[in-house]
Design brief:
The chain is α/β, with parallel strands linked by helices. The chain has 11 helices and 12 strands.
Length: 314
């Protein structure tokens, strides 16, 4: 009987060890990073995803270790909340996110950080002061463009290329509560302010081509004079151009500047429909975000801010 008990204990011990080993193997195959994008309805965020996938392939990582989720629109905060909750419930190790709000997600992000997840914010900054003061938490890192400088570059291009000393400008804004939109607007307005100028009108089109098209039609119906347009992204610039073309406006007489340098915008520049765009590097953002998350998981030293330069393309 004693021999049987010893054998039983021994087999139980071996079984427990095997379960632990198998459990570890299963965990190693589970996704490590959840990459949350605002939407895939905008080619800019598609390019961020492509960049992330390139880093996975070139880094010879297992493709299933990084999973992607995206909302239905630029302001789909509800979906992003769901994705963050999912990452915590499924015990992901890191989240890379292009946030749809600068502060509405802070509570959940703080929970994720306190649970031990690394959080890399991409493209659109969150209100880090609010995160720290309200939740005593800090993100792992941020990677994105200098949007303020991009707005300045766009304004400078219009002023330098207009035949008029003070051109009349129509300004298209993105989602007003998002940090990206705020920074581009601030940079643009600061440069105009140096020449005591301001736009003829500011139009909120929420990054959307269709909204910009419809609102540009409404503006044109008022028969107000204008010389130039700055749209805070290419989708809005292209929507405004479509409206002008349908209304018989000669694009050669107007300066139209977009932001992002998406493929449709670059084609429009080649065709003479768009004057210029501020080039970001979304693929580089995606690549760096994945690399930063992986480095953070290996406890390497990580910079708090990774700024990517912007430039004018015409």
């Amino acid at each position: 009987m004693k021999a049987i008990n010893i054998k039983f204990v021994f087999l139980s011990f071996i079984s427990a060890i095997l379960l632990i080993v198998l459990s570890c193997q299963d965990n190693s195959d589970k996704p490590t990073i959840l990459f949350v994008l605002k939407t895939l309805n905008n080619p800019f965020f598609v390019q961020i995803q492509e960049g992330a996938k390139t880093e996975i392939l070139e880094g010879q990582l297992q493709t299933e270790l990084v999973q992607f989720r995206a909302g239905n629109s630029h302001d789909d905060i509800h979906s992003q909340r769901t994705f963050i909750e999912y990452a915590m419930a499924q015990r992901y190790k890191a989240i890379c996110i292009t946030p749809s709000s600068s502060d509405a997600l802070n509570g959940l992000l703080a929970e994720a950080l306190k649970q031990g997840l690394k959080v890399v914010v991409v493209d659109t900054k969150i209100d880090e002061k609010h995160l720290q003061e309200e939740y005593n938490a800090s993100i792992t890192s941020f990677v994105g463009s200098d949007n303020y400088a991009g707005g300045q570059i766009a304004a400078r291009y219009i002023l330098d290329n207009s035949e008029k000393a003070k051109p009349r400008i129509v300004f298209f804004e993105g989602v007003s509560y998002q940090e990206t939109a705020q920074q581009r607007k601030s940079g643009f307005m600061s440069t105009l302010g140096k020449d005591n100028m301001e736009p003829v009108v500011s139009i909120v089109a929420n990054w959307d081509r269709r909204q910009a098209y419809e609102k540009m039609n409404n503006f044109l119906a008022q028969e107000l004079q204008f010389d130039a347009i700055f749209a805070s992204n290419d989708e809005m610039a292209l929507g405004a151009i479509e409206a002008m073309e349908e209304n018989g406006i000669d694009l050669g007489d107007k300066i139209v500047v977009g932001f992002d340098a998406v493929p449709d915008a670059l084609e429009a520049i080649n065709l003479g429909r768009l004057s210029a765009t501020v080039r970001q590097k979304p693929r580089e953002m995606g690549r760096r975000a994945v690399r930063i998350a992986l480095d953070a998981l290996e406890n390497k030293d990580i910079k708090e801010n990774h700024s990517i330069d912007v430039e004018i393309v015409n």
